[in-house]
Please model this.
Amino acid sequence: METTLVENLPEVTAVGVLIKAIIILAVISAIAGFGTYIERKVLAFMQRRLGPMHVGPYGLLQLAADGIKLFTKEDIVPQNANKFIFMIAPIITAATAFIALAAVPVFPDFTIPEFIPLLGGTFVPSIAADLNIGILFVLGMMASGLYGPLLAGMSQANKWGIIGAARTAVQFLSYEVVTGLSILAPIMIVGSLSFVDFNNAQSEGIGSWLIWQQPVAFVLFLIAGFAETNRTPFDLLEHEAEVVSGYATEYSGMRWGMFFIGEYANMITISIIAAIVFLGGYSEGTLGWLTIVLKVGFFFLLMLWVRASWPHIRPDQLMWLCWKVLMPIAVINVVITGIVMMV
Amino acid sequence: MGLEQFKNRNVGTQNYKTLDLGKTPTRGLDKFKQVVNRTFKGELFVGLWVTLREMINALFRGEMHTVKYPFEKLPISPRYRAIHDMLRLLESGHYRCIGCGLCEKICISNCITMDTRYDENQRKEVSEYTINFGRCIFCGYCAEVCPELAIVHGPRYENASEQRASFSLFEDMLTPIDKLNLQQEYEGFGAVSPNADDNIKQTPLAY
Amino acid sequence: MSTVNIKIDGKEFAVKEGEYILNAARANNVFIPAICYLTRCSPTLACRLCLVEADGKQVYACNAKVKEGMEITVDTPNILEERRAIMEVYDVNHPLQCGVCDKSGECELQNYTLELGVDSQSYMIPDTKRETKNWSSVLHYDAGLCIVCERCTTVCKDMIGDAALTTVKRGGEALDKGFKETMPKDAYAMWNKLQKSVIAPSNGTEFTDCSDCGECAAVCPVGALVSRDFQYTSNAWDLKRVPAVSAHSSDGFQIYYEVKPTSIEDRSEKIYRVTNEWNYVSLDGAARFAYDFENRDVVKDEQAFEKAVEAFKKAQTIRFNSVITNEEALMLQTLKEKMGIKLYNPEVRAFQKFLGYYQKASGNRFYTTDTDAVMKKSDFVIAMGTALRNDSPGLKYAFNNVQKMNKGAGLYFHPVGDTLIPSFGKNVECFTHKPGLEEAALYLVLDLFADKEKLPDDVKEYIASFKSSEKKTIKEKVMKDVTEMVKDEETGEEKEVTKKVPEMVEKEITIERNGLVDLLGGNSEKFEEVFAKMMKKKESFSMMIGEDFYYHDKAENLAKLIALVEETSEIDVVMAPPKSNALGVALICDLDDEAEGYTVGYNENGDFRLSALGDGDLDMPAMNQQEGTLTNMSKRVVPTNAALEYGGYELNDIVSALIDGERETIDWTVKLPTAKGYKAIAFDDLENGYSNDGTENRGYLLKTSTRKVKMPKVEKFDEASALEGEIVYRCNPGRQFSDFTDKAHEIFEPFGLYASIAKAEELGEKVEIIFENGSIIVDVIVDDKIEGDITKLSDFKSAKDVYTLFGESRYKTVTMRKV
Model:
């Protein structure tokens, strides 16, 4: 467990990291978009509908159609909004989501073949920035993402926006505690904050997955993750029936799209974290990377599935759940883990 | 019969039934018990199963509900009240409308107008007939009052058009003479009821 | 008027004595079902629905008179059964074509079938094929729909006087005898009659020979008789009824213009027909069919308006006719007063003068009776100076109605012989005298009716001077007994037989001759006897005076004679104003005798023409496009409403531009001159309708007044003033009155010279009539109801200026030249 594979790898250059960053940005944006397609399809199937069908085969190009629509829509800024904040708020959401992904291993590392001019031979790492405090960084970055909805809601001079913003602050801050505490136990076991270390610690088959040692932490993390990504049953920030569209009420076009890209990026981030921390992450070899894709896919699907099945809860229930149920359990879990490790 | 039900003037509350939801816990311990109960009862998973099952049924057992509307249409009830059709007599092909003006009279949105005249065959001829679909509320009174079953509500509910007028004249609504064989007998609003024969009082006419 | 007390269904009512039960009930808003009865006509007993129980006996309410203390029950079980059976019978074989029938919605057969709850049929009979026919240019008869209530024949005979319709054999199957036992008695009797008859023109041809008034179609309870023009064009319920006044004859009949949008494309309203309250007023053909004379599609032409105002500023004369409202007349009079413009109206001027002579001689502001009163009371009418059939339909109806309903008698003095008037009743005596001898007619009336003691001595002497007695030998047939011996051939015996054998005997008798009668074309030998018969049981007398007297050289003397007649006898007089609102114009306007200088013509010729006919320099609204009041023959100020929209300028706009006017035309109503009998009542406060007992509640009656005057001094007449030779009479055909009637599409009577059959043959197709001051070429048209050589020349086209040709007389000696 002490050894790392890092020294066997080629040197990570600035160019490689840049390329990686571009790949992440491009691919995750695309996946986020594609995620909307998957979400609509899955929700439709679960309600015995067909979902988008008309743009492209099985509606596959709906994504492109939506993209074109979002990009070409008029950029509307409300008259009484704080224009500057209104305009940067979606960027905060998207940016923090992607920055968080910098410390998450996405796709295997590879070396660009020699025959490609200019970049030939450049090593592209799986992680853009393999920080030794990876998890902390990711959680921190995702937490700072709260500024997006918060500022958006407050800047738009709309009562629904204000309520959405207030809910954002309450929900994200509260669940940050649960996320941190729930993941503390696995960190204690692994003894590292690096994702690579987590991966390595569970590389000996399914039996070595941390989920077996920390089931409570897993459940808590999952619940908190739903809340962090603003998914049903905790989608109080923009719940249509209550606050129209919450913080996004006045947004339209690509600015609104950026919130969504951020949300889907966050969903992917949370899925990857869950997969790496609790479900063994990726294995070696080409197929090994497929395993993490499957695991991430499962979590993503779970989010959609839950959305299709469960009703959302009230804000007071949300707070009650967080502070009176989840947090005490997380603390107890940490204490018990500590005792077990000491013994 | 008592008068209690008339004295309750809270309109709408008379027919409500209260479901038995049990008692709302007040003590901390009871609340805790309820939470534990609900958490481990697995109801959440029942919910997940229901949606998953539906997805499986939809995808693999052909229970998909969606009707791909413009390409696929559901059969509509004969009682459906869409754009009016003016029917013809099957034998002669002459339009059935006799110009009695009852539809004009009964129309509650006052949108039917007709011009009639004395024609060469000494009959009342409907020279023009129009319905203002901007005002029509498709109540079906015209079809119901029509003594000849001449004006009926057709099945044509797709009434998007560049011009409102595209629907409103006599010839727009009249069965085209070459499609007379396709004319459907009307079963809906105002049509003769299946047991109409039983309700007729016979006039003593031996001749 | 004495009243009697009766009880209907337990409620007490005080009703007029001698009234029919049905009318008494209607007057008190008690409903008794009845189809065949018409209020002002004789009961026909065709429908038998009005069966009621009076003092325990079943009687027909339409022909049983009320008695003091009578107790009437409208519904008894037996009567209800009868009524239901009657309605069932009416429904037997009645075509189920309510869908297309014009009457649907206002059909009495529908209404009573529903009212009496007929929901099943117990009777049957094979139907007879009955053809639909067009009886005339306006009438369409569908025999299949006819229920033979005989309202059409009754109204035509009792009211209109044409008696152009009658019941004829239908040729239907005989009723099954079994019904006689099984069905209610009256229903059977009704059915028996119904099954045998159908309506047809009474002259035996396929076409009616009548005045085309359309009253038969108006009274028809079902869709059997309808106007050909209206047929199948509209349902009754789609039409909006606008109460108005007929704009043509001076009768001022109340009518309803029934309007509806022209078509789907053209939403502007159009008059589809004219209806009337036929129980209380009967229309003539012009009132009913001349309705579409409106000035269509007029917009405000500011230039023309400016020119009109200029024209008025420099005008010295305004020429107009009587087809204007009281308000317009007042405007013109105001213009005269403020701007000194002369008012020229030859049509009314003569009447105005005559009315003036009459007022002066009699002391009465107005003549003393009206058509309605004549119909209600009179049993002896005298008509003179009016071509009854053409000039005034109201007078004709009254003259006829008196004969039919009041068991009346009538005298008709007119130079133009007429075949219709004698047919009004057997006590109608016609005098076809020479034109110019109208005074003689009035002297005869004085002779016949005046209280001799009241008459001034000179008049008495003058009348007596016409009387003579002469001895005459006449041959008389006397039956004489002749006795002779007859030998019986067989037995050889001789017998004495007495036979009566006629023999001519000469006898000498004394005959009282009345020179006046002979002078007027009568036969004084027989007249005395005839007149004695006519005078039997007569109580109320009235006299109708017409236009001939106004256009007469001796108009003043005629007016004095009329005043004398009124003074010395029990005769009430009604005068027919020439046209439309002539009485109103005569009262309101201060007319001048001559036109001079620059003339503005209003619906008349002039240097600048205002016209509601659409052919002038500035458009004006026609009578059916404006509201206002008219003064009718009955001295009543009646309101009329605008049936159709009018977008142009009105006279009021011009008056407002010239002097201080009013905001609306009807703001003038309240300012009508009270000195002339008008009341200061605002237009909107005027009522317009009839109540159930037939009381006319339209507008108000002019205030009358009488002042004591000396007995008028009358002049003797000059026998030599009688016209001789070829004489033309200025007179319009039946339904024509003015350019407005001519414009209407349902009026077909052409402009021309109307002549009797023999005269028309003599004249040929076209003639030039040469007057002293001009000539006119016209078509000759046969009028089979004219007798004699005098011809009638129409004057309704103002462009032909027939008035100028005739000058101040209605009769002219002319030279005819075939063209």
User: Anything to note?
Assistant: The radius of gyration of chain C is 30 Å. Residues 346-362 of chain C form the longest helix (17 residues).
